[in-house]
Amino acid sequence: MFQKIDNLKTWQIAIILILVGFSVFFSGLSGGFQGDDTDQIIKNTAVHSISNIGLFFKSSTFWNGESLVGDFYRPTMTTTYSLVYTFFGANPMAYHVVQLLIYIGCSLILFLLLKRFFRPVIALLVSLIFLVHPINSQIVYSIPSMQEPLMLLFGLSAIYVLSRSQTTKSLITATLLLFLSLLSKETAIVFVCLALLYLFLYNKTRLFSFIKIVTLPVILYILIRISVVGLRNITLSAPIDLLSFGQRMLMVPSLIVFYISKFFFPNNLSTSYYWTYQSPSFTGFVIPLLIVLACLGLVYLAGRLIYKKAGKKALTPFLFFAAWTALGLAPYMQIVALDMTACETWFVIAIIGLLGMLAITLKTLMPRLRPVWLFTVGLMIIIGLGVRSELRGLDYHNQATLSLKDISITDKNYLAMNNLAKYYIDNNQLQKAEGYAKLSIEYFPSVTNYNNLGVIQQKMNDFTGARQSYVKALNIMPLGVTYENIAITNFVVGVLNDNIAFLKKGLALYPNNGRLWTYLAIEEAAIGNNSEAKIAILNAYRLGPIPSALYVAIINHTPLDVPILNSGTIVHIP
User: Fold this and answer.
1) DSSP codes joined into one string, 313-367
2) What is the pLDDT of residues 305-357, one digit of tens each?
3) CA distances (Å), 225 to each of 53, 219, 476, in order?
4) Above pLDDT 90, what percent of the chain?
5) For residue 112, how many C-alpha atoms fall within 13 Å in the half-sphere facing its CB?
6) Do the Cβ atoms of 461 and 467 come closer than 8 Å?
7) Domain containing 461 — which CATH number?
8) Short-list 78, 6, 88, 7, CA closest to 44
9) Which residue, 215, 356, 443, 444, shows the most beta carbons closer than 10 Å to its own?
10) Cα dihedral angle (127, 129, 130, 133), rounded to 10 degrees?
11) Domain range spanning residue 272?
12) Has residue 394 been placed in a domain?
């Protein structure tokens, strides 16, 4: 049987992976759009046409009403969103299926790469464990995680190309793949390091040539990224962003233990984690540090035993995969503050290295282990992990189910509470929405939870409270939608001249915001500034559809009572 598995063709392995992948992850394929999908897909008119592909490579990923903004440079992800939208429209299942197929493709490339180190049956077992492991399930179920399988697909392909070909063409191909991986997510710099390490360990004669070829694209990527979004995330978006560098370094042992524990015991899973430690403690620092030191001791011991038993031939791949694990974890150790403390998707590179280390250890130190036992245990592990991943898919049924699950698992998860508030707003359950929005703000005030609280208060006709919440959101980060919301509340509780000054301030930042121009036109017309009102309404007309009655009234200077959106207020134009 093992010989037959060893002799399977690549297309047959692909079919196995496809069948297993869809069997495990089908439970989450029907989940709807959630979280960042609103601003990255649903409201993002830029991705609704692939003709905007040039824009994707000179912008970020979030649509603010008139342009793509944000701290992330991931044009291949935005391009993928646009391609799916072009063919299937706003169909969340289409995005899930494409994401799953890309992830299965990663598993196939991983299998082909692992065959350079193990017999095919072992490579298949490891690839299947990688495919079905619950810690990777978010990569399939969460559409905003599309960058992870894209980065992985191109990065693994680059290492595989280097491992199977000796030509200069392969160096160029690998470089192009690494560049695409970087355009998917900046963490792909890990694959650049792994490519260099692989050549150093296995093909030193090609190392210098590869360095000469890969250096220019890496520098080019860095320069493009800096010009588009800057070098690093500068937005305060999580509690860990408030810690000093030294305080974040105290978190490193607990971060490593978090990922190791989720690998071996993937029981309680959440889309994001936000714990922090501002000072060393026994449970938060000492115990995790002792566990990390024990793990390092086990790795050292395994390396010594492998070298003693099989020599350098077995030690070299063990060290390669050990370095793979360390490099995969390094970007997420909060050296630079990230947008959450930990995330399961961030382990997707390191898990390959860890699986490789375990496979080499078993292969070398337990050579007499009967293959049927190994296969049986491996199959049981795959089934167990697969069932857990399938059950995880049920949590992604809708935003409420997922957020409630996250809240039950993680402490002070402000993002889950904010997402739940948004869900209840959309379903007009305002009392529940208000409670979760206020809890979210209590744990970590952000532009989104303050804005959501303002929307809730506005729907409850508390326009003064809504305006206060919107102003707090604006003080955290100026967004076009926040200017729009404040302008609406100003119609109810503000002064006309004050609102005109406020609208002009917003338009200085967002000159292509049609709603702000419309509101300005109404205000100017209401106080008799007819020439200014005409300029404003013409700008609004240029940017998008506006009420024809309003346009005619301002252009022709005729009276009109204008109802203000979501306010119950009517402004009279004389």
Assistant:
1) HHHHHHHHHHHHHHHHHGGGSSSS--SSSB-GGGGTTHHHHHHHHHHHHHHHH-T
2) 999 999 999 999 999 999 999 999 999 999 999 989 999 999 999 999 999 99
3) 16, 10, 24
4) 78
5) 20
6) no
7) 1.25.40.10
8) 78
9) 356
10) 160
11) 241-367
12) no
Q: Which long-range contacts (CB under 8 A, 24 or more apart) does 467-474 make?
A: 467/493, 467/494, 472/445, 473/447, 473/448, 474/447
Helix (H) or strand (E) holding 560: strand 560-563
Residue 331, token pair as written in the block: 């970007």
Q: Are residues 529 and 462 in the same domain?
A: no
pLDDT over 80 at 293, yes or no:
yes
* Judgement on whether residues 342 and 361 belong to the same structural domain of the protein: yes
Close Cβ partners of 244 (under 8 Å, ≥ 6 residues apart): none
> Does residue 569 lie in a domain region?
yes
CA distances (Å), origin 481, targets 67, 144, 277, 427:
12, 21, 34, 20
* 403 close to 38: Cβ distance less than 8 angstroms: no
Residue of 376, 417, 377, 381 lying closest to 400 (CA atoms): 417
Model confidence at 287: pLDDT above 80: yes
Tokens 């620092």 locate to: 285
Distance CA 491, CA 567 (A): 8
470 in the same domain as 453: yes
Kindly give the pairing relationship between strand 62-63 and strand 570-573. Answer: unpaired
Neighbours of 549 (CB within 10 A): 12
Pick from 118, 134, 136: nearest CA to 126: 118
Number of domains in the chain: 4
Question: For residues 68 and 295, what is the distance between their CA atoms, to the nearest angstrom?
Answer: 44
Cβ pair 519, 498 in contact under 8 A = no
What's the confidence (pLDDT) of residue 479? 85
Structure tokens at 503: 């609208």
Helix (H) or strand (E) holding 426: helix 414-426
333 located within any domain? yes
Contact residues for 160 (Cβ-Cβ < 8 A; gap 6+): 109, 112, 113
- Contact at 8 Å (CB) between 115 and 8? no
Non-local (6+) Cβ contacts of 202 within 8 A are 163, 316
The pTM of the full predicted model, rounded to 2 decimals, is 0.92
Strand partners, 68: 63
Distance CA 245, CA 195 (A): 30
| 435 & 550 share domain | no
